[in-house]
Amino acid sequence: MDVQQTRYSAQEISALARQIDRPIVLVGMMGVGKSSVGKRLASILDCPFVDADDEIERSAQMRIPEIFETYGEDYFRDGERRVIARLMAENEGCIVIATGGGAFVNAQTRALILEKAVTIWLDSDVDTLVERTARKDNRPLLQNGDPREILTRLRETRQPFYAQAPIHIVSGQGPHVQTINKVLQELTQWL
Ligand code: S3P
Fold this sequence. Notes:
Order of helices and strands: HEHEHHHEHEHHEH
Cofactor: Mg(2+)
Bound molecules: shikimate-3-phosphate
Subcellular location: Cytoplasm
GO molecular function, one term: shikimate kinase activity
Subunit structure: Monomer.
Organism: Novosphingobium mangrovi
Strand content: 5-15%
């Protein structure tokens, strides 16, 4: 996706990008589109993009389902916390970071992100999350039980944490460019 597809001009986008002096961190439920939106946003702003889940897999040299299966969720969460702390320490300027759905629940990670980044909560209704997560079977938390029930419960329990992000964007079932336009609008107002 390039600048032309948004409702902003190239000049407006580069003026916005110049003002971004810290990481933009996307938080929210699995399936909401943090990675897809994050990649496109980074390319429009001409900033790097990092997916924290990919970084965890790279450091552990294992896929996420394998980490859960072999060492359990607590071990994964510990790795997740350390990887995000490293990403926040290594990156001060403009970079877009997509986090795993549970990362922002950790108090230390949440405090660090809120202090050092512009945090954006991407939010969708449960139907959208169910539809989008059904496209891949790489999410261990959805393997044991009914995904709709699990997603509904997790969305409810995590909401108070996500709601601490200063920017809240509802991402519907439409094309990602709609969400990107909302993100650009919010960033313009926030900066
Ligand atoms: C998780 C979300 C996943 C991944 C792991 C746990 C969660 O990331 O970190 O499967 O607890 O919600 P995505 O949100 O990118 O799917």
